[in-house]
């Protein structure tokens, strides 16, 4: 064992080696061109009542051992610490999972690499002759992390993560001088995944300009709505995924009562999963407490089937940990977070879902979403559905609905499951996540 852990206490050491880089512009001006490298550790000691923590950027063994000893000196030893319900939920795992250390390691990228990809897309995709486009924001960034975890129970883990992004965003002046935003974001686990997407970027640009010029305000009311996969994904994440994070209900008896396993909460066409093994942007083979990430059906065939746990929430509610304890970095303690969260594909063809609507709204994409009992989605672009066909672009401020009623009102689930990368914020921490979903149809949503 690398460290000498104190007797009758639970101790863990989480070490992280992080490198980030970015290159961003506004029109022809460079706003940032930087690299950041940080190495640090969080040391935690638990005596059954309190956690004692310390952070340090000095990660050599002697320095970390000193922090362990200092924390142990102020904790109260407990001979029965291994019988503590929370400590019992920390499983013992030993593994080294390094997926990103070969030729596609983003840390190998040079300053020229990140400048070249931005300038390539600027040349291919920015058309200064389009009068509606007033400002352009091309940018690239990457994030790379290697994590190690050592615990007094015997866990020894080493795993890595990386992702990169190119984004080209526009400020567009449209109908009656109103300002709109639009653009395209590309995500990848390696640099080559971001190349040769100019056709997609140009299509997104032209769609945004057309929408800005030609949209008409929607008449507020209740409509049949078809949600595109990206909108389904944010509904799934914000409206149901967060409700499934068990730390929200630890002190809420009403929520615990409402959240009864085995209860039908959705149309039987609906199933929602959270898992960390598939290579999407919530990839997380082991969580930051050392537990293996489990595949959890939050809803299966319309039935409430599971929720997401760290060691504490599982102990409090008498359930099994699911490996969902995640921390933004070594400065933070882990909390319950989603990983890859998505609604499973159904059996309905997307074109048939739209054909089945005589008069409704197609929600094409979104700016933001929130949700607990009631959810709100602010779309970027919507389109009228008239006699089963997409028609004119509509300006919609917000789409709202009751979460559980909406889950029952989903009457069609498409075959076209797609995944999307994102960053999720909770209690001051941001984590990479993946969201996913197919095209769905909802009988009734409120549109304003």
TrEMBL record:
Gene3D superfamilies: PmbA/TldD superfamily
Origin superkingdom: Bacteria
Domain Metalloprotease TldD/E C-terminal: 220-447
GO CC terms of this entry: cytosol
GO molecular function, one term: metallopeptidase activity
Biological process per Gene Ontology, one example term: proteolysis
SUPFAM superfamilies on file: Putative modulator of DNA gyrase, PmbA/TldD
Record-given protein name: TldD protein
Species for this entry: Treponema bryantii
